[in-house]
């Protein structure tokens, strides 16, 4: 285990963490404010990546493709809220799960029909290509650092929006007691639309940022959806602070665990056994972490007030 590899994998874990936060932030607000289970949230991450591919093909410019994909993700989120989601408010969680799972199947097949099943990619922005020396012997891609900085910047802006603005006050109140917010005269339907739109846009932003790093392919959002649910359970449903801290924690545990589990087990096991046990345990680490945290803090690390 070298220091250089440890630093690289730590940065990779933080980058994964900020992408998870962009997905989990909208998911935890939707779940916390509306008590709505949206399994299609991972689809919105996938569509953000495909929108970026499509708009890059039209414009040939990464920044333009990123901004247009954000607008498209927001428009799609609002459209889905009007056509599908608002008809599920107040219904049972089973109805919500079945309906949003149907959306997963629909959009996964839709992107296969439009773009095919082969993985696609977005070219690395020229201004962010190449690597930068972080320490002697350590070169790290500039684009990955830019993704990390963008995710942290969005997290800071979202914190300001939630904690320092009137609409943020209503969202926090809705996450604590939506019925009381409605009784006080707040237009809950409009609040729900705003939350859905922002959540969809954040997930689309994460997909667009991930395009130059990961393969853009159907069902690419499914694994991120599972990780996002782990994040909101660990952080606390409805809590932006919890989603941020848990995202970084999950990103680091998952990345470092997959990188170093075998090396750690070689300290106590034979190399052949360690190479078998390490990867198997590494894939379980975040779920073991979730179980341990819920044992001591059933509401999560930073539950929303009133939860």
Automatic annotation (TrEMBL):
InterPro entries in the record: ABC_transp_permease, BCAA_transport_permease
Subcellular location: Cell membrane
Transmembrane segment boundaries: 12-32, 39-58, 64-85, 97-115, 142-162, 191-214, 226-256, 277-296
Entry membrane topology: Multi-pass membrane protein
Keyword flag Cell membrane: yes
Transport recorded as keyword: yes
Principal location listed in the UniProt entry: membrane
UniProt keyword annotations, A-Z: Amino-acid transport, Cell membrane, Membrane, Transmembrane, Transmembrane helix, Transport
Pfam families, per database record: BPD_transp_2
Similarity comment text for this entry: Belongs to the binding-protein-dependent transport system permease family. LivHM subfamily.
Protein name, UniProt field: Branched-chain amino acid transport system permease protein
Native source species: Inquilinus ginsengisoli
């Amino acid at each position: 285990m070298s220091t250089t590899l440890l630093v690289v994998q730590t940065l990779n874990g933080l980058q994964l963490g900020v992408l998870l936060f962009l997905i989990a932030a909208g998911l935890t607000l939707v779940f916390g404010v509306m008590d709505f289970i949206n399994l299609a949230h991972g689809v919105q991450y996938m569509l953000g990546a495909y929108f970026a591919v499509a708009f890059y093909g039209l414009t040939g410019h990464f920044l333009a493709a990123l901004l247009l994909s954000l607008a498209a993700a927001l428009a799609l989120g609002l459209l889905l809220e009007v056509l599908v989601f608002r008809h599920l408010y107040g219904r049972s969680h089973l109805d919500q799960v079945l309906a949003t799972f149907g959306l997963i199947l629909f959009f996964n097949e839709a992107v296969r029909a439009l773009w095919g099943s082969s993985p696609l990619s977005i070219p690395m922005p020229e201004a962010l290509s190449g690597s930068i020396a972080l320490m002697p012997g350590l070169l790290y891609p500039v684009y990955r650092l830019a993704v990390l900085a963008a995710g942290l910047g969005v997290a800071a802006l979202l914190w300001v929006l939630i904690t320092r603005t009137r609409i943020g006050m209503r969202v926090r109140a809705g996450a604590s007691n939506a019925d009381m917010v409605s009784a006080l005269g707040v237009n809950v339907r409009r609040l729900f639309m705003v939350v859905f739109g922002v959540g969809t846009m954040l997930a689309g932003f994460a997909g667009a940022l991930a395009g130059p790093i990961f393969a853009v392919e159907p069902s690419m959002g499914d694994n991120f959806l599972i990780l996002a649910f782990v994040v909101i359970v660990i952080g606390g449903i409805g809590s932006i602070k919890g989603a941020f801290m848990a995202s970084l924690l999950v990103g680091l545990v998952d990345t470092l665990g997959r990188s170093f589990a075998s090396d750690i087990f070689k300290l106590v096991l034979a190399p052949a056994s360690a190479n078998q046990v390490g990867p198997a345990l590494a894939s379980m680490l975040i779920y073991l972490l979730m179980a341990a945290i819920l044992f001591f803090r059933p509401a999560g690390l930073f539950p929303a007030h009133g939860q």
